[in-house]
Structures are given as C-alpha cells and as structure tokens.
Specification:
Largest sheet: 9 strands, parallel
Structural class: alpha/beta
Oligomer: single chain
Distance between the termini: 38 Å
Length: 675
C-alpha cells in the first residue's frame, strides 16, 4: 500500500472526532426554513457526518450542460459552519429524465429482452459507454467545484451498486461480456475447455458467437452462467473505477468508497473483490422485520462486512431508525431495538453509525421509510431514540479504532455461492448459506465471535476454521485450508464442499475431491433428501437436506453414522488427525441441537472460550485497541435481566459495571487490565 493510500484511509477517521454519526441528507427535498431547522436538530442529536447529493443529478444538471450548484453550495457551507463533515456523492445513482430520453440505450435490458424504463432509480447499465461518459462528467463537475471545500471528508461514489438489477442483457452488455471473456481466456479454445462446450454441441468458433445466458429451452451451460456472474460483478466495480479515476485526478488525497449491501440476501457483487478499490468499507444493512432472530442475522452481516474490510473499522452507511417501506409488512422496531441494532454494528467493527435518511420524506416511494427526523418531528419516540443514540456514541469515543477479537474463521466466497446454486445440481435444497448461518448462530449463542475470511486469505492465527458448502474451490485455497489444519487448527468441512474447481469442473476420483486427502474419506454417491425428510445419526442428531454414501479410511475416526436405510452404518461425521491439528467432515445439515452439540465439541478441541462468562440470552463481543485496552459489548435482546462476568467501567452509564445487563439494554465495559 502506497503512502498516499495509507494517508487517504487514515483521513477518513481523522476528519471526524469520535465515532461518526448521521445519515443520508437530502436537503433538495425541502425549503430553506426546514434546512435551517435541520442544522439545529443535527446539533441536538450530535450528528457529525452526513452523505449528501446521492440522488440529486436531476437538480444539479436540470438540462444537459446547465448546472445549478447554488443550493448545494449553501448546504455544504452551512454544514461546515456547524462542524459537520460530508461524504459527497457523485449523484450518479439515478440518471435524470433528459438523459434517459436522449439516450434510451443506457437503460437496463433483462434476460427476457425487456427494457427497464425511467421513473424509478438505478435505471442504467454499468457497461453503457454513453452512461459512463455522462457519469464521469457529473463526477468531474462536482469534484472540480468542491475539491477544496472544508466539509468534504469522503467521496460517496454512486449508490448501492448492484441493487434492484444485478445482470444486464443489452447489446452493449453482450459486447462487453465478450471482451471480458477474451481478456480472461485469451483464446476461444481455452474458453471452450473451461466451459466444457463439447457437451451438447456448444462449441464456439469465435468470441463473436457468444451471448449472455438468457432464456433457453432447458438448463444453460454452468461455466457460462458462472462467468456471467463474475462479469456482472466486475462491470459494476469497473464502472466505479472509472468514476474513481476522475476523483483521484482532481482530489488525490480525498478518500472514496461506495456503499455495499453485505447481508445474507445480497449475492450479486463479489464484495471481497470490490474491497481492494475502497479506501474504507461502507455498508447498508436492513433487518427483516418478520425474522424472529433478526439480531442474529444482523450479527452475521456485520461480521461478514468486517471480513470484507479485512478487520479494519468500517462505516455503517445506512440502516433504519424504525420501519422500512419495501417489505410486505413493515413493522416498527421494538423498544430499545434501534440502540441495540446500532451498537451491535459498532460491537462488530463499525466506527460510524448512519441511517437512511435524516428527514423522512413527505413524497416519493420511500415516504413511509423511517428516518432520524420522522413525520411527527421532535415530539416522537423515534427522535428521542436518535438523541439517545447520539449521546451513547459520544460516550464510546474510546472504542474508535479498536479491532474485534476472534479466533474462529468461517470461509466465505461469493464465487462459491454463485456456483453452489446453479441449476442441474443433486438438490435444489442445498443453499450456500444454510450450514454457514447455522454454525454462526450456534457460535453467537455461545458468545463466540467469528471472522469471515476469503478462501485465499491467511488463516494463521485461527484455532477453529469452518468450511461450509464450499462447492467450488481453487487448488491454492484447498491447500491453504489443509495447511492450516496441519499447523494446528481444527478444521471442519461440510457436505457439498470441494466438489469442483473454479471452472465448475468436477474433481474426479471421488468426492469431496479437493478435500478428500485432508479428510481421509471418499464419497461415491450423493443421497440428497427430499423436502421435509430427515435422517437420524447414531449419536441422536437429526439431519436434513443431505446425506451421502461415504467411506472412511483407516486413519479416519468415525464419530457418528447414519442409521436409516439405505445408509445405515455409513459414516456421517468423521475426524482425522493431521499434523498438529485435525480435519472433521460433516455429511448432513444437523438440526439446531445437533449443530450446537457439534460446535461445543469443536470449540473444546480448539480451546476457544466464549468472550465472557454470562447467562444465556446476551450477545457478547470484544474489541481491543492497539494499546491493549479492551471493550466488552454485552447486548441483551431479551426481556429479562442477564448477568455478565466482567470488571471495569461501564461507558454508557459512567459507573462501575454491576455485572447485570437489564432487559433490552446494552452495556459497554472498558475492562480492567488483567492483574
């Protein structure tokens, strides 16, 4: 990393005192008197950081080549006077009507050939050369005008790339896909080999014959589908890089990012790949109100965001103060839930807490989406919650810059996710995240924090490594996982892992090809289970989704077997010692009790304790600063008080920690140094 890159990354946090707090600010929706009131309310709430101009292109350039920056000048000047820093957007997330009317070729085209029209947002293809030209022009105009503005702390490039439309089938997209393939493979013969086009007479004589995978009589070529997923992810980040190049030219020392949507539901972008181009990782996260364990999904997404960030502090760019507007049933957050959600993200690595949006809109598609200032104004519980959160974040200034501690790694790969859920597989019931989320949940409930790591990451320092449904894996990644076990880690590999290489070619010789030697097993045939069916193991565990006809080598210990016909007596859970560590294999998806029992055994073997001793029902995470100070976050999502064993000052109350976290409350303990 160059000195300039290091400086930009540190600048993000140096410009903002304490933890950053704020949200998307859309002053263009409001008259001047409301804008003036906004600043006073921001001071009351403790806001110090705002995203501005995300969806303002239509007002900044109302007609082609005619700019009006007057209102934005006033807004930035006013925010600077109030001591508020700005993440200034490129305003390119929603092209103006005049642009789409003049150049309809910029609009997205679906696999069915339908052109998606203006009237919403994100109505452009990232591969459109025309759109890129106009977007770079808008970016340059903003950069040149505000390059020296003292409020500017960060560039917010576009917005939620990949949202709503994740793949593109227009003529220019097809041409860009072909160029991408030619750069990747070099020759059509290499592509034919990678895609296995000898099957079904799919051989290509030139790249010109290739089209994006679309509607077809039956299942499509899996290699083509996988590469199209890679291409669409690349197209977005390549578009980002073009705008970033303009920003770097005009403001080389101002950091830049775009807001990701890391969650258990966002599959299109490869965020590990994208992260290399970001000065800081920013993420948007929204709860699913109907999920009774939504705080666990939040923890999963926050841990994954931290993994994408390489363990560095990150920005929670958006979440909601209460209800959203785009789910089938939009319930408000429960009492104390907004504080718990916000500090849950901080506990897992966020040094900024921001919302969509500052003031709730009175018109438009998201007028019923909650905001920091609701329709009811100051005399509302939402506003009181906003002020309370601002006070809490000010009290947590000491946490800024610290890192989350973890000795457990969960291997995560977007390409493996794409590949695992292609069609024509043994079972449509196999979902990439199912086993992973089940293990993460069990760790969460036991007070153990997990890092998400890319298969190519350095695994040194982790005592327990979980490899869940890693269907596609490279030779290098498989070797790295095996080496981690050899050097002392406890490694668990789940079913449908190591089956194919990066081209979706089956690894021959028996499953799971990439991990067969490490695990000391060999599977001849899969036995996926029908929906609603289950299997019982010899230790009483009930499994679903998957089973297989596996044989264990003499060096492999069989810990549990299937008990149901036709696999009665066949190994279902195995362990093999390797070097200083061990490699376990799990051949089904256990129920919650089975997962918990297995996690308990793995944690015991790996000698990984919980973050702290506590009664059940409390979320525990620890952050540690470079100078050795540690901060224990204890979040009680339940309706009864819980006890936590920790000595230190509780930062939110300013008192010594009593050992009790009240129902629905949060405690952050600056722990006493070890005696």
């Amino acid at each position: 990393m160059s000195s300039t890159e290091t400086s930009r990354r540190s600048t993000v946090w140096n410009n903002i005192p304490g933890l950053a707090y704020g949200g998307d600010y859309n002053p263009e929706q409001w008259p001047e008197d409301i804008r003036l009131e906004d600043v006073e309310l921001m001071k009351e709430a403790g806001v110090n950081f705002l995203s501005v101009a995300i969806f303002s292109w239509g007002l900044l350039e109302p007609t082609e080549g005619s700019y009006d920056f007057t209102w934005l000048d006033d807004v930035l000047d006013t925010l600077h006077a109030a001591g508020i820093k700005v993440a200034l957007a490129t305003a390119t997330a929603s092209p103006p009507a005049w642009l789409a009317r003049k150049h309809p070729e910029i609009l997205p085209v679906t696999a069915e050939g339908t052109r998606l029209e203006r009237g919403s947002r994100r109505h452009y293809s990232p591969s459109s050369s025309v759109y890129r030209t106009y977007a770079k022009g808008m970016t340059r105009a903003l950069a040149e005008r505000y390059k020296d503005h003292p409020a500017l702390a960060l560039w917010h490039v576009d917005n939620e790339l990949g949202c709503h439309v994740g793949e593109f089938h227009g003529e220019e997209d097809a041409a860009a896909f072909r160029r991408w393939l030619e750069r990747k493979y070099g020759s059509i013969e290499t592509l034919n080999e990678a895609w296995g086009t000898a099957f079904w007479s799919q051989h290509y004589a030139s790249f010109d014959e290739i089209i994006p995978p679309g509607l077809a009589p039956t299942t499509l070529n899996p290699g083509q589908q996988l590469d199209f997923a890679r291409f669409n992810s690349w197209a977005f980040v390549d578009y980002y890089r073009e705008l970033l190049a303009v920003i770097r030219e005009v403001t080389p020392n101002v950091p830049a990012t775009t807001n990701f949507m890391v969650s258990s539901a966002t599959k299109t972008p490869d965020y590990f790949d994208w992260s290399k181009d970001m000065d800081v990782i920013a993420n948007d996260h929204y709860l699913v109100a109907a999920d009774p364990e939504r705080e666990i999904e939040l923890a999963f997404s926050a841990d994954l965001t931290r993994g994408v960030a390489g363990g560095e502090p990150w920005i929670l760019m958006e979440h909601s103060t209460s209800a959203v507007n785009w789910q089938p049933y939009n319930q408000p957050k429960m009492p104390g839930e907004m504080l718990r959600n916000s500090l849950g993200h901080v506990a897992r690595g966020a040094d900024a807490v921001m919302f969509f949006q500052w003031r709730q809109s009175k018109a438009g598609s998201e007028k019923f989406h909650s905001a920091m200032v609701p329709h009811g104004g100051r005399d509302t519980q939402v506003w009181r919650n906003v002020v309370e959160l601002g006070e809490a974040l000010r009290k947590l200034e000491a946490v800024k810059g610290s890192r989350v501690e973890s000795r457990v790694a969960i291997v995560f790969d977007y390409e493996a996710w794409w590949a695992a859920e292609l069609d024509s597989h043994p079972s449509q019931g196999v979902k990439y995240l199912d086993t992973m989320r089940a293990f993460h949940r069990a760790l969460y409930l036991r007070g153990v924090t997990a890092d998400f790591v890319h298969p190519g990451a350095d695994l040194a320092g982790y005592d327990l490594i979980l490899v869940c449904t890693l269907y596609a894996v490279t030779d290098q990644a498989a070797a790295s996982i095996a080496a981690a076990a050899h050097h002392g880690a406890t490694v668990l590999v789940s079913y449908f892992s190591g089956i194919v290489d990066e081209h979706d070619h089956v690894r021959l010789g028996g499953y799971p090809g990439a991990f067969r030697e490490l695990l000391g097993i060999r599977t001849e045939e899969f036995h996926p289970l029908f929906p609603g069916k289950s299997v019982t193991l010899s230790d009483g565990t009930v499994g679903s989704v998957w089973s297989e006809n596996m044989k264990a080598l003499d060096s492999t210990e069989v810990l549990a077997t299937f008990t149901d016909y036709p696999l009665d007596g066949v190994p279902a859970l195995t362990r093999r010692a390797t070097g200083a560590g061990s490699a376990w294999y799990l051949a089904t998806l256990p129920d919650a009790d089975g997962i918990d029992a297995l996690i308990a055994r793995l944690l015991e073997e790996a000698k990984v304790p919980s973050v702290a001793e506590a009664t059940s029902g409390v979320e525990l995470t620890r952050r540690r600063s470079e100078d050795g100070r540690s901060f224990l976050f204890a979040i009680n999502h339940g309706r009864e008080d819980v006890t936590v064993k920790s000595d230190g000052d509780e930062l939110l109350s300013g008192a010594r920690f009593s050992g009790v976290v009240p129902a629905g409350a949060v405690a952050v303990i600056a722990e006493d140094p070890p005696k």
